[in-house]
Structure formats: structure tokens, C-alpha cells
Amino acid sequence: MQTETLKKPPYLVIAILFFGAFVSFLNNSLLNVALPTIMIDFDIEYSAVQWLATGYMLVSGVLIPVSAFLITKFKNRTLFIASMVIFTLGTALAAFAPSFTFLLIGRMIQAAGSAVMGPLLMNVMLVSFPREKRGAAMGIFGLVMITAPAIGPTLSGYIVEYWDWRVLFEMILPFAIASVVLAVFKLENLMETRNPSLDVLSVILSIAGFGGLLYGFSMASSEGWDDVAHVLAPIIVGAIGLVWFIVRQFRLEEPLLDLRVYKYPMFALGSIISMVNAAAMFSGMILTPAYVQSVRHISPLDSGLMMLPGAIVMGLMSPITGKLFDKFGPRVLAFTGLAITAYSTYLLSNLDLQSTYMYIIVIYTLRMFGMSMVMMPIMTNGLNQLPTRLNPHGTAVNNTAQQVVGAIGTALFVTIMNSEATKEGAKLVAGMDPAQLADPAAQSLLQQQSLLHGIQVSFVVALVVTLVALVLSLFLKRVNVSPEDVARIEAEGK
User: Fold this and answer.
1) How far apart are CA 49 and CA 53, in angstroms?
2) What is the rounded CA–CA span in Å between residue 339 and residue 337?
3) Inter-CA distances, 267 with 142, 337, 383, 386, Å
């Protein structure tokens, strides 16, 4: 890989990569709101339509660990064009799918194309800017990475309400094609490549390990923990595969995913805080819509609009946070951001049946504001401690860890919510007479109160998780990026 940054950032190349990445990232969360409509159109069960989300996540989760190998093996121009062509073909197949089977295949092809996009763009940013200016650059990257999937549900809710779900794919298709055309004519190669050997057993173990864990935990949130075939067995297989995969990586001279990145203390600490913060972030993405739609019975479009200000704030703050990181380092930003996140999570745990629409928007937006100050600064600080040779592995490790922790966090928070709601429902029923239970209005109120209690308890757990990240942030130290330190880092990494 390239061992030093370029003298002048290649802004045109970065713009093309950003354009393609934005299109693919937007697609990640675009379909979730449309699942009920697709279920009706194809006359299928929810367990089947859910594979449009689960299958996408599985393909991405399995391919991201391989991204380090792909980035070191292939030129960035070749890899980007191939990824966008695959993504475009998947989008076209999904847009004109005659049956659910073709739609699912198209969706998984999309995932195969977009999986490497984040790590590829991040690595191009790392070699395009010197370490002392990476904060601002990675802040712009965060603008794409955070904003695109965040506006997906709002955009999807509007389109599903007023048009057909196929528009979700049809509107992306011309942009995906344009991205391919731009790349063919204007994209240049920025990073040197080498010819690493591919350890096939590591690939198999990666698929079994990460795929098993992602599948098992994602199914646990809908099927429950007593489902052996779809939950327990995949998690056990995934855990065994992951342990075997980790042991093997340390024994290989050229590992598929070099886990030696964790010997760098600021990368390790930043990665751990990112994982804890990801679990807390996913809690908000799952629990807030559950409260808004299932407890308050607000429409999907209105609930999507409710989350839009938070997405906009995250997008606007990302480049600002990057510049602040370059000036002040990671600790102040991470601690302040996590303190705001913890306070807003506490407020979310106290939502009730009378909380106003505007109050919910303000709290959710405040939480997103806090989180916008955390992720990119700590990731950038950790990557600054890695020698350039390990950049692809550092980005792949971070992306993979957040995928897995996101799935685990979602499953655990949904489990807590359902379990506490069931317990609360039993308590409320015990205190009511049979005549009250026969009243449909009373039954509806009972369900609302039970689920509200489950959501409140889940947010309390999310608060505890956030406080753990807050304490860890106190140990962050700014990585020195003076020429002498950079030379030492590169020499140690050879």
C-alpha cells in the first residue's frame, strides 16, 4: 500500500467516490419502511419479507472483513467500478423484479456491490490527507456515511405513502449508472497495490463466524431466543467460527483481517468505544420508532419526518466535528458527545403517553447531536496510530465490529423490550377485573402501557451502556502526528 499521503488531495476522485458511496449508503436503510407494502404486493409472510433487510445485512457483514484483502489486491479504480456495476445490476433487478425471489436476489446483489464502498472510500481519504488534517476530511466522510442512511426512512416513508415501492429502486438506478460512467472516464488510481495471498480457510471461517452471529442475533429479535434452528444454532456456529478465525489470523503471515491493529492502544480503545456507542445508537433506531408507531400510533411517514431533524443535525455536525477534532483532539469531543447522548437517553427513558410530538423530536435530535461528536473523532484518532500498511485492516475491523455489535445490540434491546412489556402486561391484567378486560379500548391502553414500560426499561439499559462509553472516553489520548512520530509509526509497522 502507499506509505505516505499524496501531496495534493485529489478532490475530483474523492467527489466521484463520495457520489457512489452516498447512493449505496442511502440504499442501506431505504427499504425498511416499505416492507409491509411489499409483503402485501407479493402476498408473503413477514418472516419472508424481512429477508430483504436480513439478507442485505448478512451479505454486507460477510464481505466487509474481506475488504482489506480486496483493497490491497485491486486498484481503487477497478474495485470501485466493479462494485458500482454490481450494485447497479442489483438495483435494476430489484426495480423490475417480477417476483419476490428476484427482488431478494437483486437486494443481495446490491449488498455485494456496496459492502466494500465504505472501507474503500475511507482508505482513499486516509492516503489523500496528512494525519494532522484527517479530522476535517473524515468529518466530510462522516457526512456521507451518517446522513445517507439516516434520511432513508424519511424518504422511504414519503415515497411508499404517495407512490409505489419500486420507485425506491428506480430513483437510485440513474444515479448509480451516472456514478459508473463518471468512474470510467474520470476516476484515477491513488493507492499502490500488492499481491497478497488469499487464505481460503480464513474466508470460510469469516463467513461462518460473522454470518452465523449476524443471522442468529438478527433472527433473535423476531423469532425469540428459544428458536434453536434460527437463533441458537447459528450463534453457536458463529461463535466457534469466530474464535477459530481469530486464532488463525494471528498465526498467518498474511492474515485476511490483521487483528494486530489491536496492539495499538488508541485504536483498540477507540474501537471499543465505537462498538459500545454503536449498540446505544442502534437502540435509539429500534426503540424510538417502536414508541412512536406502536405506542403513540403515529403514521410511518410522520415518524420518519420526526427523525429527519436528527439526521440533518448529524450531517451538518460531521464536518464541524472533524475540524474540532483537528484542533482539540478526541477526548473533549467524545466526552461531551457521550454526556449529551447519556442525558438525552435518560430523557427518552421517561417518555410517556402524553409526550408531545415536538418534545420527542427535540430529544431525538439532541441525542443525534451528541452521537455526531463521537464516532468519527475516535475512529480517526485510532487510525492515526496505525501505519499506512494497516489502514485497510483497521477500517475493515471497525466496520465489521460495528455490524456485529449492531445486530447483537438490536437483538438484546428488542428482547429486553418484549420481556419487560410481557411482565408489565401480566401485572396490569392482574389488577383489572374481567369486565374491564373485555373493553377493546381498555385492551388497547393495556398494550400501550405494557410496551411503553418495555421501551422505558430498554432505554435505561441503553443509558448504562452509554455511561460505560463515557467512562472509557476519559482514557483517550490524542495521537501525536508530528513528522517524527509518523516516521516512527511507519517504521514500526513494516
Assistant:
1) 8
2) 5
3) 18, 19, 6, 8
Q: Quote the Cα angle for 324-328-331, to 5°.
A: 105
Torsion of CA 178, 184, 190, 191, to 10 degrees: 100
pTM of the model: 0.82
The closest alpha carbon to 459, from 274, 287, 339, 278, belongs to 287
> Comparing C-alpha atoms, which of 209, 226, 266 is closest to residue 478?
266
* CA-wise closest residue to 400 among 274, 286, 285, 311: 274
Distances (CA, A) of 177 to 24, 88, 170, 183: 12, 7, 11, 10
Largest separation between any pair of C-alpha atoms in the chain = 79
Per-residue cell: 202: 480464513
CA distance 381 to 415: 34
* Contact indicator for 183, 83 with CB cutoff of 8 Å: no
Neighbours of 444 (CB within 10 A): 11
Show the cell assigned to 134.
Answer: 484527517
How far is 51 from 35, CA to CA, in rounded Å?
10
Contact between 55 and 104 (Cβ < 8 Å):
yes
Distance (Å, whole) CA 311 – CA 317: 10
Tell me the DSSP string of 332-391.
HHHHHHHHHHHHHHHHHTT--TT--HHHHHHHHHHHHHHHHTTHHHHHHHHHHTS-GGGH
As given in the structure block, the three cell numbers for residue 279 are 449498540
| List of long-range contacts for 285-288, beta carbons under 8 Å, 24+ apart | 286/410, 286/413, 286/414, 287/348, 287/413, 287/417, 287/455, 287/458, 287/459, 287/462, 288/348, 288/360, 288/364
Q: What is the pLDDT along the chain (494 residues), one digit of tens a residue?
A: 444 445 566 778 778 888 888 888 787 777 777 777 888 888 887 667 778 877 887 888 888 888 888 888 888 889 989 999 999 999 999 999 898 899 999 999 999 998 888 888 888 888 777 777 777 777 777 777 777 777 777 777 778 777 888 888 888 899 899 989 988 888 877 777 777 788 889 999 999 998 888 888 877 766 777 777 778 899 999 999 999 999 999 888 888 888 989 999 999 999 999 888 888 777 777 788 778 877 888 776 777 778 788 888 888 888 888 888 888 889 999 999 999 999 999 999 999 888 888 999 999 899 989 988 888 888 888 888 888 888 888 888 888 888 788 778 877 888 888 888 888 888 888 777 776 667 777 777 888 899 899 999 999 999 999 999 999 999 998 887 666 666 766 666 56
Query: What's the full length of the chain, in residues?
Result: 494
Strands (E), 29-110: none
The C-alpha angle 104, 106, 110, rounded to 5 degrees, equals 115
